[in-house]
Write a structure and sequence with these properties.
single chain; 157 residues; alpha+beta; 3 helices
């Protein structure tokens, strides 16, 4: 399995506050968990016999203070992202546990300044606390994420 952070270019202009961040989980073995949106359809439903998925896009979407978690099964890796940051998961990590921790990371609709970037940081913290990401890798990933988010797009100058 491989986990990465995908950063999409900002819209309408590529500035930090408009850059969408999401997680992409690529499985070595396909998981039988179906796509769902929380919280109404939690827990996810299982399909018998597994599936032929390539990966899963995990994200929070929606307007400020109305975010919802979503998990979308993809048959191919997205290509429309600006940057990708790999997340080093400890060897021997269980994909089911990893996915459950990501899916159960809180969506904070009470805070005005909380957004998809905050959610990705929260997920990384949860995975670090569960020891699925080593502390050094956690800090390096946060640094890389902050650096990418701070980059100024040349076409916006």
């Amino acid at each position: 399995m491989a986990l990465s952070i995908l950063i999409l270019k900002g819209d309408p202009v590529d500035l930090r506050q408009y850059r969408h961040t999401a997680l992409y989980l690529q499985s070595k073995n396909s998981s039988p968990i179906q796509s769902y949106h929380s919280p109404a359809s939690f827990p996810p439903t299982l399909s018998p016999g597994g599936s032929s998925t390539v990966g899963r896009l995990l994200q929070v979407t929606g307007p400020s203070r109305e975010f919802e978690f979503s998990s979308q099964i993809l048959t191919s890796k997205p290509t429309d992202y600006h940057r990708e940051i790999p997340v080093s998961i400890t060897s021997g990590s269980n994909e089911t546990i990893l996915l459950a921790l990501i899916q159960s990371t809180a969506v904070d609709n009470a805070s005005e300044d909380w957004d998809c970037q905050s959610w990705v940081r929260d997920v990384l913290k949860v995975l670090n606390m569960a020891r699925l990401i080593e502390s050094e890798d956690y800090n390096n990933t946060l640094d890389a994420l902050n650096e990418v988010l701070q980059e100024v797009a040349v076409d916006t100058l």
